[in-house]
Amino acid sequence: MKKNDGGIDKKDKIGLTDGSVVEASSLTIDELKRKTEKENVVKTITKRSDDYSQWYQDVIANADLAEHSVVRGCMVIKPYGYAIWEKIVAIVDSMLKGMGVKNAYFPIFIPESFLKREAEHVKGFSPELAVVTHGGGKELEEPLVVRPTSETIIYESFSRWIRSYRDLPFVINQWANVVRWEMRPRLFLRTSEFLWQEGHSAHASLREAEEYALKILNEVYARFAQDYLAMPVYTGQKSEGEKFAGAFRTFCIEALMQDGKSLQAGTSHNLSDNFSKSFDVNFLDQDGQRKNVFQTSWGVSTRLIGGLIMTHSDDKGLVLPPKIAPVQVVIIPIIKVQDGAVISAAKALAKQLVGLSVEIDLRDYLRPGEKYYEWEKKGVPVRIEIGPKDLEKNAVVLVRRDTGAKESCSIDQVKKRVEEILQDMQSSLFAAALKRRDESNKFADSWQEFEHALRQGGYVFAHWCGDEGCESDIKQKTKAVSRFMPFDAKEEQGDRHCINCGKKTAYKKRWAFALAY
């Protein structure tokens, strides 16, 4: 490279990560140096077995998913991470609309008095609230809470929109951001601001509300987690101490992460008429009587991305199930100089893979090995390598992300074979996660067995009295809490005694306990 006084010849060009080029003179020496240093840094990923928490952070950094914001407790979701969220939004939104759910949007600011109308609700959220006291240079007449959840502001609208039994059931969903002041932030798992979907419905009876809450849980959340995220989940009911503030009952999907801890991946709440009484949400029934509605609320959030990472990823980086991967196939031409034949073949391959999300990596300033490493860390399910020697054989090399298996494939069979690999990878990831979870499940009938099982990780199924004080005692002694009472568990007959206090319990099913996020 010829150098002038500035160190770069104005005629030189620099390749960018998107495959485009710019005149070198448009970059200052410092900018070019920073760019080069950033791209040449080889980031290492801590082994899961050495430090699981650091491994999780390293996977996020290496996949370029997100980073901590300058605003404490908040995160910046980078384009690749946001692309995963967009896939989640598109699929879940389609599932909800298939059930007749319509989207709307409600204010991010909620009058403080609204939260105080439902005593348990405000009590449960008070420690996490962010409150605005000034606006436009003046002190507000009433403080405004930055949305921690929207039951109160939405139900104020419900009280005006619902008039007759003919309006029921009434269902609304919104995609929004919420703020809950987080003292111990972790990217995607716990941040002061996060993105989510929250749905709300109103029904004529408690039974109908219960059925709808369970329908959302089973037919949307559990199905999405398992069919798309390849993440096995248990469905069950939360304890009184762990249920949503102001709810009558809370139902959940829970998934086991690779470190043996449980992640609450989604919740659906039967609110009974607790909020309708506070917000005068009522209707004129067929018998001419005015009655309160029975309500539900339900949601999943960007926490699903954290669960996705921890369910499948390995020491090489992110592993993505094909159905949720923003890029399902990356094609890497193996060339030392610009080779028109190889590049044309790569573009023809991309056209052959119609219906799949495909990217061709044409960056000429990175060696093939560097590209392999980068896309491997991003979890792209299938990598296609094609070079001059492959063209001579009318073949390509296919590399599968989860197993690392390589195989040669004739070019005319690429689409068929890639689709087979993607389908097998989707089911294999689910099967592996399910096997890992089920093999870690344990049953305990004594406190000694209970403590020993918890130390090994995974879910421990044990009888429990259901008392909040007893649950608090268990948490203090073991750091574990009840995660759910599983719907599909067998009922047990005979005397059943609490694992902690020894009292007889009326519950015929065992509760699942675990350390949790």
**% residues in beta strands:** 15-25%
Number of helices: 15
- Kindly report the average pLDDT value: 91
> Total strand count, please?
25
Shape: globular
Rg (C-alpha, Å): 27 Å
Q: Order of strands across the biggest sheet? A: 5-9-10-16-13-12-11-24-25-23-22
Q: What oligomeric state best describes the polypeptide chains here? A: single chain
Tell me the structural class.
Answer: alpha+beta
End-to-end C-alpha gap: 53 Å
Low-confidence stretches: 1-26, 36-42
Largest sheet data: 11 strands, mixed
Tell me roughly what share of residues is in helical segments: 25-40%
Structure overview:
The protein has helices at about 30-40, 50-65, 80-100, 110-115, 120-125, 150-160, 205-225, 275-280, 305-310, 340-350, 370-375, 390, 415-440, 445-455, 470-480, and strands at about 15, 20-25, 65-70, 75, 100-105, 110, 130-135, 140-145, 170-180, 195-205, 235, 250-255, 260-270, 280-285, 290, 295-300, 330-335, 360, 380-385, 395-400, 405-410, 440-445, 460, 480-485, 510-515. Helix 3 crosses helix 7. It has about 525 residues and is α+β, with helices and mostly antiparallel strands. It is globular, with a radius of gyration of 27 Å. Strands 5-9-10-16-13-12-11-24-25-23-22 form an 11-stranded mixed beta sheet, with helices on both faces. The chain contains 15 helices and 25 strands.
Give the topology, please.
Blueprint: E1 13-15, E2 21-23, H1 29-40, H2 52-63, E3 66-68, E4 75-77, H3 79-98, E5 102-103, E6 109-111, H4 112-116, H5 119-125, E7 131-135, E8 138-146, H6 151-161, E9 170-179, E10 193-203, H7 206-227, E11 234-237, E12 249-256, E13 262-272, H8 274-279, E14 282-284, E15 290-292, E16 294-301, H9 303-312, E17 329-333, H10 340-352, E18 358-360, H11 368-377, E19 382-386, H12 388-392, E20 395-400, E21 406-410, H13 414-440, E22 442-443, H14 447-456, E23 460-462, H15 468-478, E24 481-486, E25 511-514
Parallel strand pairs: 5-9, 17-18, 17-19, 22-23
Antiparallel strand pairs: 1-2, 3-4, 6-8, 7-8, 9-10, 10-16, 11-12, 11-24, 12-13, 13-16, 14-15, 19-20, 20-21, 23-25, 24-25
